Amino acid sequence: MSRSRHSALFALLTAAALTLTGCADPAEPGAGTAKGEAKGKTPTTDVVSSVKKVDAVAELLPEKVRKAGTLRIAAATGSPPGAFYEADGTTLSGADIDFADAVAKVLGVELKREVASFEAILPALGSGKYDLGTGNFGVTDVRRKTIDFVTYINDGQGFAVREDSKLKEVTDLTDLCGLNVSTGAGTTFEVALQENLPRCAEKGKKPYEVKTYADPAAVWLSLKQGRTDVNMSTINGLRYAVTQQEGLRFLNEFKRLDVGFAFKKGSPLTPAFQAAVNQLKKDGTYDRILKKWGTTESAIETSQISPPELKGPTPK
User: Fold this and answer.
1) What Rg, from alpha-carbon coordinates, does the chain have?
2) What CA–CA distance (Å, rounded) separates 122 from 262?
3) By three-state DSSP, how is residue 137 classified?
4) Cβ(148)–Cβ(306) below 8 Å
């Protein structure tokens, strides 16, 4: 099955066959639909078309890019509210899509978007296949060694379980010992889980088992069917998904991370993208995008280029 069909399946699972939420609750920053949208509908507010080119920002682009007028962008999809296919299997939606399109309008360039798997995008940036990538890429110190980031939201790591789960909170990854944990392939979640796996044995506990999936729909299916006990994923993605699926609940935030557009190390594009994000904050588009997708608690004060990784669990 193609990736577009996988993503369409996920959209159908979360938008048609499952219970949907009516509007975003301020206490649930990733709730299914933005305030004012019809129940059961993906948010459709147009927050991009009114954005205008800002010459002073566009001038920060390399001359070659300004003349070409295009940039190649890779987009990982399948994880609402970041980026996903609508139920028709062809229409892309999500906050990542809106942010990238809005930045492109400020810069006066056209994006040549190609959907790619999450785990393939960062290596492809290094090879020069794409100019930039989106996919809710968290800024980590390991990634900063080979990738440059321009931040636009703050998201992070969290957990979701079935409603009947006895697990109440994860404050340390050893709380997962003895459980089957699902997560996305090639993610920071997979890295963190594998790195901490030996700690269960050190505490005399049975290790947890990490089950990775390339497609987000498979992650949720494994949890709902009881093949896994807990899902580790993005805070916003988890909050969004559990509001749309019966029998699941958001457990807790674990760690916050800045999220950014990804570029190859040393890319000359980063100053222009940073200025464009900050322009969107200045003209109000930034807040409108977050409101549309119910993720206002993920707002950042200002865009940064490859800031240090945020350390430690989410403060209580």
Assistant:
1) 19
2) 7
3) coil
4) yes
Q: How far apart are CA 292 and CA 288, in angstroms?
A: 6
Beta bridge partners of 158: 233, 253
Note if the bond before 207 is cis, omega within 30 degrees. no
Rounded CA-CA distance 209/192 in Å is 13
Q: Which residue is associated with the tokens 């969107």?
A: 280
**Alpha carbon distance 132, 124 (integer Å):** 9
List % helix, strand, coil for the chain (3-state, nearest 5).
35, 20, 45
* Nearest alpha carbon to residue 139 among 305, 298, 286, 315: 305
- Reported as a single tens digit per residue, the pLDDT across 32-68 is 333 333 334 678 899 999 999 999 999 999 999 999 9
Nearest to 29 by CA among 290, 280, 277, 313: 290
pLDDT tens-digit series, residues 152-210: 999 989 999 999 999 999 999 999 999 999 999 888 899 999 999 999 999 999 999 99
Do the beta carbons of residue 309 and residue 284 sit within 8 Å? no
Closest CA to 163 of 229, 232, 81, 79: 229
The two three-digit tokens of residue 69, written as one number: 């007028």
